[in-house]
Amino acid sequence: MVKFFFILLFSLASLTIFAQQKEKVKKERPISDTLKTPADSLKKHSPKKATLYSAVIPGLGQVYNRKYWKVPIIYAGIATAGYFAVNENNDFVRYKNAYLLRQKGEADEFSTQSEQWILSNMEISRRNRDLMIIATTAVYVLNVVDAAVDAHLFYFDVSDDLSMQWQPVFYTTKGFSAGISFSLRF
């Protein structure tokens, strides 16, 4: 085992690394680029703008990021959670008014139910209303966070040509060397 370790250490120490050698580069005049690419013609995309837009008007940050398909999802989430919050609040008010009428000794709309049943349903409606308010706020905050993250990743390359390859490499200049080559393509 010790012999194998020393042989491996000696082999690795004798490898030549060609990436560290300086190349002679001719100094040439830079050629001006007369052709503009689509990336050059785009304005600088600002994550701060996207976050601010989305905080002021939900969905506007997604429009700024050109992710139009997310806007209906945001408004559907806010509208759904808001609808159920209003509905649960209306139920809460009905149960509360019925309880207050019972305390005064007057008739209410739940005359066949017990006072405990009214209190129980009132608490359930209050809890559900509060949860729906939290859900509405969560959708709004997620909208702002999504706009900020999308703006930060606006220029991120998501093409199918992302890969990593490795292969053994043999160099024959100035003697024989062996190694492993890693290549990343973006």
Care to describe what's here?
By secondary structure, the chain is mainly alpha-helical. It has a domain at 45-155. The chain is built from 6 helices and 2 strands, in the order H-H-H-H-H-H-E-E. The chain has helices at residues 2-13, 38-41, 47-56, 60-64, 70-104, 115-152, and strands at 163-171, 177-185. Strands 1-2 form a two-stranded antiparallel sheet. Helix 3 (47-56) runs antiparallel to helix 6 and helix 5 packs antiparallel against helix 6. It is elongated. The mean pLDDT is 81.
Provide keyphrases for this structure.
2 strands, mainly alpha, 186 residues, 10% strand
Query: Uncertain runs with pLDDT below 50, 5 residues or more?
Result: none
What amount of the residues lies in strands? Answer: 5-15%
For the residues shown, what is the average pLDDT?
81
Termini separation? 41 Å
Number of helices: 6
Largest sheet: 2 strands, antiparallel
Secondary structure category: mainly alpha
Molecular shape? elongated
Order of helices and strands: HHHHHHEE
Helix content: 55-70%
- Gyration radius (Cα, Å) is 34 Å
Query: What is the oligomer described by this structure?
Result: single chain
Strand order of the largest sheet: 1-2
The total of beta strands comes to 2
List the helices and strands and how they pair.
Layout: H1 2-13, H2 38-41, H3 47-56, H4 60-64, H5 70-104, H6 115-152, E1 163-171, E2 177-185
Antiparallel strand pairs: 1-2
